[in-house]
Amino acid sequence: MTDPDTGPDAGSVGVVTEGRMDGHERRDPGGTVAALRDAGDVRTPVPSAGPAPVPREAVEQPRPAVGARLADLDEHTLVVRAQEGDVRAFEALARRHQTALYRLAVRVLGNRSDAEDALQDSLLDAWRRIGSFRGDASFSTWTYRIVANRCTGMLRRTRPPVPVADPGAAGGDDAAGLVGRSRPRSPERQAELDAGMAALGDALAALPHDQRVCFVLRELEGLGYTEIAQITGTGEATVRGRIHRARKTLAEVMRPWR
């Protein structure tokens, strides 16, 4: 079973290990390369609205040596290479961000299996659309938005998920505030906290989708209002309103556990 804070292991979802693309690459754990090949997109991630403009500094700066390790390249260089059709450059980008993206999917969907599917589909979608990325926001913000939209769409099509046991593992202070501040734990206290966290998971799953996404991004992922607005495609005032309503609802539901 995967952990929502460490992300899926190498055999779960998402990206491939580095290897040659001549038919002798190493094992493709998540099937991403195979899926890209099936989609016919490995060499040509064509944007819908024409190629993204290349910033002047990208033209003027010397290009890293062909043999440079992808893991050592800066994000901008990897994005440019991915937009030129370099699938391994995109895989390097995905490796850098997949833990946070998976954690977001788990917390929004409340189900690790669905989260893995959402991450896989989102990475494929991001690869197909990489040519449309213009750098108006950071690459991480852009991919967050793809994952958030994918998760929201899944929630609208399915029944409410079974929530994960610990929705606040990486946002401990905020989650602890809803179920009581941490203190030395007796077995009885630990059982009480476990029950409180389960109740919090249920309450979080019951929030409207838009409130849940904003709450997770703010309180559990620690993102700022501006970035959340970019991810959700709304204004900051809307984001603040959604988070306020989510906090109010959760605080009321969790009152017995305070």
TrEMBL record:
Protein name (record): RNA polymerase, sigma-24 subunit, ECF subfamily
Record keyword Zinc present: no
UniProt similarity note: Belongs to the sigma-70 factor family. ECF subfamily.
Region (Disordered): 1-61, 158-189
Basic and acidic residues: bias regions: 19-29
Superkingdom, natural source: Bacteria
RNA polymerase sigma factor 70 region 4 type domain location: 199-250
NCBIfam families, A to Z: sigma70-ECF
Keywords: DNA-binding, Sigma factor, Transcription, Transcription regulation
InterPro entries linked: RNA_pol_sigma-70-like (IPR039425), RNA_pol_sigma-70_dom (IPR014284), RNA_pol_sigma70_r2 (IPR007627), RNA_pol_sigma70_r4_t2 (IPR013249), RNA_pol_sigma_r2 (IPR013325), RNA_pol_sigma_r3/r4-like (IPR013324), WH-like_DNA-bd_sf (IPR036388)
Protein species of origin: Pseudonocardia dioxanivorans (strain ATCC 55486 / DSM 44775 / JCM 13855 / CB1190)
Compositional bias of kind Low complexity: 165-180
GO MF: DNA binding; sigma factor activity
Residues covered by the RNA polymerase sigma-70 region domain: 93-159
